[in-house]
Task: inverse folding
């Protein structure tokens, strides 16, 4: 080891290395020789680094005023200069929006464990809405209203926005589509029927609002006969409607106008909890489609082929309407699914009639519109990069964010020790701590720079996806970003089962448990810090010391 | 100009040389007397040598035994060491944690 270090050292220091190596032959004990060699190798390596970083450090002679170390730039100063440069370069990343947003995403999984509750995704919207209210900004209020998860507050903001700008009436439909069973939004249905009566979305919302239970089919309570008839009437109106408009293009226009105005850069609010048609539309549409198809089967059994075909085509037309005029992948998929249901019936119908050509044609359409493997399937892979890439990138982003925090902490701790040693040089531990603290500062600032660069480069493509989502209206460009955000909600390397076990352990207990848990963590951390500081500043007890040398007058 | 502080480890080394100013000293011997590790001792010796306060030479001791690097203060170095050691003891930091390289 020492020989290798001597080889890399500058020429003018190799004699010293050879001198150290020669002493090893006179040492008593292998362990002493090992420690001697380690010390010698470190000296040689430092000289090599010094020569590499600051060539002017070598070959200094005695300065005229006789000061031994005057103006002598040490290796420590070179290291601290390098560390300062790395820290400054790291700070520059803070000026870039991709890094800031990426860091926010990186800290997301820790949020669940530090806060006493899961992340409140409505909080950024509420802050934005307060600003919008003070400015009487109808568009910003509408932007917040269509996204908020709380129907009551959402309704209040919507009413305020529409009162400021009546052209925003369409936001009632979007909010009702999100909260169809909320009592605050039901009074808007008549206004929407007058305003856009030909839109299939309105009777769909009205039908859903008639349902007693606000949850989906698995807890749905069977309606009364009257309610069922009213529901069927509305669903029939939806299936007969000439158009389907989910108003999401208007939501996209709101995004383009409001987000830059307020610099709203929360990716969760925009992408992960974006505005889209809810799954109750699928439940209602599928249920009514089956009712119609069953009615068609009934007609066919009574030899009313024309009536049966009309029923089958009714479902197919509605599916085609959703597929062609819907904006989201879910709407396209639902339209595909309904078409597939209709074409299966039609295929079976023509097979019974002995019309092989038509049967074959509809058989082809059944495959094409198969909801799992067909061309329009939502499972055919919407994301460009895919889940595994997103999961890997999410892990890189999270780990980089964690390393930034750890490196920053170490750098600050090392800097604090160096400053303390400089201010109190008479303390016994001051000199001894300088080399270690210098190494810690340099290594941690290098790690800080590396982590910041990694986070920036990994997250930057997703930042561009976020920008495209704002420009284009949100849907088709955000699947990869959404996968990353979903993956980044759990700690890296932690399987979902372990993560949710930890999460339930922390949050299923009483608030008292949480209080004592975090109090204990804080107390132990403070005690540990106090021990470290006391050991550093007070130092260890003095040893026997050296014998006094004879004073030379 | 502000006089820079000399570390207590350097003072300990200078003290050893001043005790026997004309004698050539071995590195391991200095390490045992000052209780400094090689990683601390040799940078001090190298710095003293760079400032022409210390001289070094190779010495062959016995037949067949590898030569050893030895050190001694120069006249300038001796004067410097005596001046440094003449500072009042209260102003000089004590070595609290002697490094060791025990055999």
Result:
């Amino acid at each position: 080891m020492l020989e290798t270090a001597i080889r890399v050292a500058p020429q003018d220091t190799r004699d010293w290395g050879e001198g150290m190596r020669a002493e090893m032959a006179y040492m008593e004990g292998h362990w002493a020789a090992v420690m001697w060699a380690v010390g010698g190798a470190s000296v040689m390596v430092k000289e090599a680094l010094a020569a590499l970083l600051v060539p002017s450090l070598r070959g200094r002679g005695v300065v005229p005023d006789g000061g031994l170390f005057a103006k002598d730039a040490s290796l420590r100063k070179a290291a601290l200069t390098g560390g300062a440069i790395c820290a400054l370069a790291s700070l520059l990343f803070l000026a870039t929006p991709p890094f800031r947003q990426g860091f926010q995403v990186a800290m997301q999984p820790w949020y669940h464990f530090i806060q006493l509750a899961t992340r409140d995704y409505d909080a950024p919207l509420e802050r934005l809405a307060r600003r919008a209210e003070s400015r009487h900004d109808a568009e910003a209020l509408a932007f917040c209203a269509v996204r908020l998860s709380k129907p009551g507050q959402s309704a209040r903001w919507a009413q305020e926005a529409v009162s400021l700008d009546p052209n925003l009436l369409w936001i009632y439909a979007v909010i009702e589509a999100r909260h169809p069973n909320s009592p605050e939004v039901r009074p808007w249905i008549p206004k929407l029927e007058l305003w856009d009566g030909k839109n299939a979305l309105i009777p769909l919302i009205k039908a859903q609002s008639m349902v007693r239970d606000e949850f989906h089919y698995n807890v749905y309570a069977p309606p009364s006969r009257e309610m069922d008839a009213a529901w069927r009437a509305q669903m029939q109106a939806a299936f007969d409607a000439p158009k389907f408009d989910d108003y999401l293009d208007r939501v996209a226009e709101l995004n383009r106008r409001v987000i830059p105005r307020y610099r709203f850069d929360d990716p969760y609010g925009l992408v992960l909890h974006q505005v889209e048609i809810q799954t109750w539309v699928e439940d209602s549409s599928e249920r009514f489609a089956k009712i119609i198809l069953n009615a068609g089967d009934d007609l066919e059994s009574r030899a009313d082929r024309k009536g049966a075909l009309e029923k089958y085509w009714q479902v197919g037309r509605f599916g085609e309407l959703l597929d062609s005029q819907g904006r989201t992948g879910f709407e396209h998929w639902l339209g595909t699914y309904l078409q597939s249901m209709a074409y299966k019936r039609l295929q079976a119908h023509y097979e019974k009639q002995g019309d092989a050509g038509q049967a074959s044609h509809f058989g082809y359409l059944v495959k094409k519109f198969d909801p799992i493997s067909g061309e329009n399937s939502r499972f055919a892979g919407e994301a460009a990069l895919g889940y595994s890439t997103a999961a890997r990138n999410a892990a890189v982003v999270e780990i980089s964010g964690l390393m930034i925090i750890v490196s920053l902490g170490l750098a600050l701790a090392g800097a604090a020790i160096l400053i303390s040693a400089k201010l109190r040089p008479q303390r016994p531990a001051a000199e001894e701590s300088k080399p270690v603290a210098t190494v810690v500062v340099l290594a941690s600032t290098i790690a800080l720079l590396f982590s910041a660069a990694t986070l920036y480069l990994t997250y930057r493509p997703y930042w561009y996806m976020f920008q495209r989502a704002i420009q284009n209206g949100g849907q088709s460009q955000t699947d990869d970003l959404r996968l990353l955000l979903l993956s980044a909600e759990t700690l890296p390397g932690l399987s979902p089962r372990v993560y949710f076990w930890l999460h339930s352990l922390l949050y299923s207990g009483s608030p008292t448990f949480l209080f004592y848990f975090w109090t204990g963590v804080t107390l132990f951390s403070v005690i540990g810090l106090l021990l470290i500081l006391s050991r550093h500043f007070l130092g260890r007890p003095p040893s026997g010391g050296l014998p006094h040398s004879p004073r030379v007058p | 100009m502000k006089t820079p502080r000399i570390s207590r480890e350097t003072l300990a080394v200078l003290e050893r040389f001043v005790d026997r100013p004309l004698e050539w000293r071995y590195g391991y011997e200095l390490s045992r007397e000052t209780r400094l590790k090689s990683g601390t001792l040799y940078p001090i010796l190298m710095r003293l040598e760079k400032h022409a306060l210390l001289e070094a030479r190779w010495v062959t001791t016995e037949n067949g035994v590898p030569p050893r690097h030895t050190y001694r203060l120069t006249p300038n170095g001796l004067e410097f060491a005596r001046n440094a050691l003449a500072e009042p003891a209260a102003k000089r930091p004590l070595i609290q944690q002697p490094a060791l390289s025990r055999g």
Remarks:
- The first strand of chain B starts at residue 25 and ends at 26.
